[in-house]
Specification:
The protein has 13 helices and no strands. It is mainly α. The longest helix is centred in the first third of the chain and has 29 residues.
Amino acid sequence: MVWVGIESQPQRRAGQLPVPVILAVSMTAAGVVYPVTDAALHHTSPIMIATLRALVGGAVLTAILPLMGSRLPRSQRLWAWAFAIGFGNTTLTQVGISVGTQRAGAAVAAVLLNSSPFFVAVIARFALAESITRLRAVGLVIGFCGVLVVVFSDPGNVGHGSQLVIGFVLALLGALGWAGGGLGMRVLTQREPELDIPGITAAQFLAGGVPLIPLVLLAGGSTDWTRPALDAQLVFLILGGQVLVYLGFNAALGRWPSTRVYAWTFLVPAVAVLVEAVQGQLPSVTAMIGIALVILGVAVVNHPRAEGERPR
């Protein structure tokens, strides 16, 4: 039985993957994005990576839509939604991640980006009437504390100097864009339960990538296209970091409350640390404690009691 006032979730259709599986795959790919992006920045600029992820990701996803039984939106109304959502979760988020990390350092950018679940929790409470149980709020706080411990376990990740303020602002805008875009997607899926998720996701990439074109032209910088390693890195960032991550995240938003979905983003920096461990850069004890807190926070947020279910 569910508490009165708690939104019941749509039943999983035959053939659909469970949401935890979708989010686990998506957040793992998102965590790998950090070290891959760091390596790619040796051969290209942050804004070039952001633009390629959006536009090429949109083109690739559009090309395979027929194989998925999907298609781009056919109505002006859905394209208007795509531009609004894409500006948040593609334009602002990509600029915030890429340029914000370059200016403020990975730690500051990661912390600000992972503050999105708090923005989502507050906005969704009023805009979507999504209740926040005390247990879910506790889980959010535990998870975010874990993120803080993970990213600040290495003080060298923090930026310094006059560029820090610019990076801070851009990263915060990226977090707000990520939160706003996700909430927009949640509203749209509630209004249209039969929404074509792959189609609207491809439209978001294309719409959100358009404003990045003048930025990449004005920013300058150089890209060494002769590097095979860069090609491989960009392939992963486009197919894994963009297409796979966003498809999974948008699909989850159609089936779970936004606060619950966004809590899984706490796993991203933890995955990034584990990837570095596999590469031989073993994390410190402090970082491992942070990872444990992140996992605990996500587990608490996803506990049935946090959803408002009565104990049985």
